[in-house]
Amino acid sequence: MSAPIVGDDENILLPAARAGDAEAFRRLWAPLERRAFGLCLHLTDNRADALDALQETQIAVWRNLDRFEGRAPFAAWVMVIARNSARSVVRRVRAAREDLLFPEAAEPEAVESGFDETVAGLVDLRRALATLPETHKEALLLWAGGLTYEQTAAALQVPLNTVRIWIFRARKALRETLGRP
């Protein structure tokens, strides 16, 4: 696993990646890939769709490096692209399912594993996240993915206090749903 990018490294790697240096891009992308995948997975609720969204994210980041203006951290810019890619995949999947004669047969239900508490906890968390309003869920996932409140507000294009309220309500709802204080 690559070491996280520090400010100076990003200042060196970004121009190199913009010039077509694939290794520089790999070093920029590597520390963010897991966070981007986590966001995509939670927004799509499906591993295969999340992988599609992650691939779209990586391609979009590579193709649009020249558009990164540095007004926010590089990681925040990548997370916004991941969010948009995940939402795009979800729209495509929903549209494809609407075209099916029997949409319920398109994707089998996930099998829960009773032997592993960790898996059960993740299943519970995913179910709890699914009960949240979409705006609250996105705000929470962006914030939990490492964005500040300000960056989350900018990504969602809503006022800062709105984001704070959405995240507060999402966390409260998750605690209640999961039975935690």
TrEMBL record:
It comes from the Bacteria. Residues 32-93 form the RNA polymerase sigma-70 region domain. Keywords: DNA-directed RNA polymerase, Sigma factor, Transcription, Transcription regulation. Residues 124-174 form the RNA polymerase sigma factor 70 region 4 type domain. GO terms for biological process: DNA-templated transcription initiation. One of its GO terms (cellular component) is DNA-directed RNA polymerase complex. One of its GO terms (molecular function) is sigma factor activity. Belongs to the sigma-70 factor family. ECF subfamily. NCBIfam families: sigma70-ECF. This is DNA-directed RNA polymerase sigma-70 factor.
